[in-house]
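hey can u check if this looks right to u? its 346 residues, i copy pasted from the old doc so theres a chance i mangled smth
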Amino acid sequence: MRGKRSAVDVRRELKGLRLRKLVCCEKGTFTLEASLVLPVILLSTILLLFLGLYVFQTSSAYQTAGLAADRAAFVWDNSRKDPVTGAFNISETDGLYWRLHNDSMSDLFRWLIPHAGAKVALPTTGISNDRGPEGKLQHAGALVSSEWDGSMMYQNNGIFKKVAVQLEKPFHSPVYARERVKQQVASDADAQVVDPVEWIRLIDFTRTVVQEIQGRIKPKDALLAMVEPQSIPEPRAVITSHDSAANYLRTLVNGKEETIQVDASTKRTVDAMDANRVAHQAFYTFNENQLRTIQMPKDEQLLRNGTQVKGVVWHFFKLSKKDQVKLTQGLRSELERKGIVVVLHE
């Protein structure tokens, strides 16, 4: 005969049934999983967003620094060049010897004498009129956005010249990520300064001129060439009219007066045509409007034809009572654009 179960056993059995029912029941599982997984996904997404922002800011710093360095190196041979386009006025240069006296030549001796080098802080305060390395750096650095802090530096190592740029700015990250993400985005870049015109000039000088003069003159003859002349040089020619200017020009270029046919209805009288078919024209008294409307079109047509003359040179002589030739910069620039060479005799 089965014995009666106690009340305690019944309660235990009911409790176990309820527990098994709760464990086996699938109601509410989605809510439970969502409450655990969603915060993890949300935090991961936010971290990825800030990581993407950090990578973008770092890439922007590198691109800005590289662009600033390239622009400064590209226009280094002329402080008046536009850093973006490279355009400049042909009359604005830094002179022939800027590489010797205005290009941080003291950098070559920094191993002997402490030298900080050319350096400017970014953002710059404005464009400087200085034609030295600091002015060139400031000219290119003015294009860098003011949101960036940093510096631009130039080093002259002789053959290898370098412009270096360092940029940085704050990066604001969440509080919980500040220990893992840097609070500053920074980058640096540098660009080599190349001078192809000077390089070609030096190579051409070495290849041609040195070979031409090598062995042509002996030391004794060189000393004789330095002896003071015994004769008195001829007095300087005095130009008082167009005829005297034309005569002086023919003597100067060993040319002769010649009349050439520009087209079927137009003739051109050249004051001095030299042996290389370069037309030299003398101007003593002139009117700029007449030069633009009458003389310039003829010579432009001759240059365009390219058969009767190989070049055109206009010589302007100052009036005997004046200190210099009164020629506007506008006319001079227009002549140079047309291919006409301008020479001032003052």
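The CA atoms of residues 45 and 247 lie 88 Å apart.
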